[in-house]
Structure formats: C-alpha cells, structure tokens
Amino acid sequence: MPPVSPMLAKLARELPAEGGMLYEPKWDGFRCIVFRDGDEVELGSRNERPLTRYFPELLDPLREQLPPRCVLDGEIVIAGPGGRLEFEALLQRIHPAASRIKLLAAETPASFVAFDLLAEGDEDLRPLPQVERRARLEAVLRDARPPVHITPCTTDRALAAEWFDAFEGAGLDGVVAKPEGLPYKEGERVMLKVKHERTADCVVAGFRWHKSGGVVGSLLLGLYDGAGTLHHVGVTASFTAARRRELVDVLAPYRDDALADHPWREWASAMAEAGGRMPGAQSRWNAGKDQSWEPVRPELVVEVRYDHLQGDRFRHGTTFVRFRDDRAPQSCTYAQLDEAAPAELAQIFGSGR
C-alpha cells in the first residue's frame, strides 16, 4: 500500500445526534499510520513524514501484536507520571541525535492507540463502512496490551458526552464522531470533532510578520503568574487579510521604545535556548521556519478562544475574539483559566466497548 494521507475531521459545536454514529475520544498526540510487512514496521506522520526513528520502543510491540501484513491508523501518545497526556514529551522526540531519542524512549515511553484498520493481508479495507472496519480492528487487537491500545468506541451519545467532560483532565482533546457507513476517505474532513472551548484575556507582548510581508501574521500572547512575571503562552493568528493590514496601524504606537522595559527583551536579539518555547524558538518540525518576532509594549489586551492548556501554554493556536480596552494588562493572570479535574488514561481504556 502506498503512503496514506489520514482521514480528517471538521469542527462541530456539539455532538451529532445518536443513530448511525460511532463516538471516540479525541487523542492529543502525533497522528500516525502504521505499516507492517513481516519484520518491517514503518511509522508515518499525518503529513506522510517518517516517525519510525523517533519512537523505537514501539517497533517490537507492534511486530508482536499486529497481523503480519497490515496498515493501521492511530495516535502516538505519551502519558506522564500522573497518567495525563504530555504533548511536550512528544515534541522532545523530534531530535537529530539517536542517543537522545534512546534516552527519552526509556524515560518517557510512548504508546500507540489504534482507531482504524485500513488493510489486512492483501485486502484493502478502506472502501468498507466505518462500523465494519471497527469490528475488524477489534478482532485483530482483541489481545492488545500496553503499549498498544485500541481506542474506546460507543454508539451511546450520552456516554460520549460523559467522556467529553470526564477525560479532559487526562489531556484528551474532546470527542470524534464517525458515521457508521463512512468509508476511509484520505485527506478529507468527513468526520466531526467536538473540542473544549474557553476564553481568556491575554496581554499582547509582540507579533510576527505574515509570510506574505507587510502585514501582521500573529500576535504573541502573555499571562502573568502570581509573582508578576509575564509568560509567553501562545499566539493568535485567525485574522482576515483586512484585519492583518489594520493591525499594522493598531500596533504601531506600541512599538516605540518597546524593548526599554520589555519583560522579554533578552529574547529579542537571539533565539531561545534549545528546547524552549519562547517567542524566538525554532519549530522542531521545520528548523528553517522564520520565528523572528517584533516586541510591543505589553499594554494591549485581547480576548481569545482556546481549547485547553498544555503545561503553562495554550496547546493549540487560539482564535481572536476582540480587543479588551477595559482590561488592565496586569489583571491578565493564570488565575482566570479553568482547570480540568485530573483523570488517568487507565480510566479511558476501561470505558468503551
């Protein structure tokens, strides 16, 4: 089977009605297509990039537990000591040094969570309905054991709604809904995903130019901790072309003498330390990507929508809602953010069919 582009999901505001739907937890990890042909096992990313070298601890368990020839769709995840998913631990694996990867594989071992079976032997299962592929997946993984798992699945919308609330504390993104009759459609957004959504008021402490040049690409967001330190927590970049042009003028007055007392001034002239998540840090996936930024005086406040935190940062990019001229920057603290009740992955794997 040639490289596979994973089937995708589009955002929905609420879970679709019960009847003809399969509901599954939405995992927060690296999407992964697993190819096994005898002793050969290859792991491919959502963008068809190779992941095999970064997760060597998964190869032997996959050889032992999967059919001799098969293709599976799933997610690579890492659970921390408290049983919560840790996406940052996954990012640490994208490293050029094999010795570093070997060390991390021992210290923070990964797991593979399967949620679709695309091929078995010489049979291409992609044309089959989702419900049939699920049954085949359950059959081939009926004896699965860690670090290989099969994702829980239910036809009960009420149970899926419970998962949505209960498992956020374990680091899950939300719930995915799949029509029972759906064939596997590569690269198409034909599933539905319902994600957690909240709002936060954040300080604008800088921005990045758009790749097209001359307009604002994203705003760098900060929150104050209890000691009064402004932390970089993420970005917001959901702007129309017209708004990007407007933001140039909005930010211009705040660029004057921005570095004089800026809390991030030491980051303005050099890249952050390796492995950091500071405004100038390079992308682990694309070391050549321009991550330079322009400081502004931290006096503007924006309201953004976000799904959840990963450590002390927003896990994904946020959505711009509005400027908050009525808020003082110093009032934008972590204290305003909701925290999900803790949960462990062991609870999740015991919750489905």
Short description:
This protein is an alpha+beta fold. The protein is 18% helix and 31% strand.
Q: What is the helix tally?
A: 7
Radius of gyration: 22 Å
Poorly predicted regions: 270-277
Helix content class:
10-25%
Task: Sketch the topology as an H/E string, one letter per element.
Answer: EEEEHEHHEEHEHEEEEEHEEEEH
Count of folded domains: 2
What can be said about the biggest beta sheet?
6 strands, mixed
Identify the CATH class of the largest domain. Answer: Alpha Beta
CATH A-level architecture of the largest domain: 2-Layer Sandwich
Mean pLDDT across residues? 88
| CATH homolog superfamily of the largest domain | DNA ligase/mRNA capping enzyme
Folded structure, characterized:
The protein has 353 residues and is α+β, with helices and mostly antiparallel strands. The chain has two domains: 8-195, D-amino Acid Aminotransferase, Chain A, domain 1; 198-336, OB fold (Dihydrolipoamide Acetyltransferase, E2P), CATH 2.40.50. Helix content is 18%, strand content 31%. The chain contains seven helices and 17 strands. β6 (111-120) and β7 (123-124) form a beta hairpin.
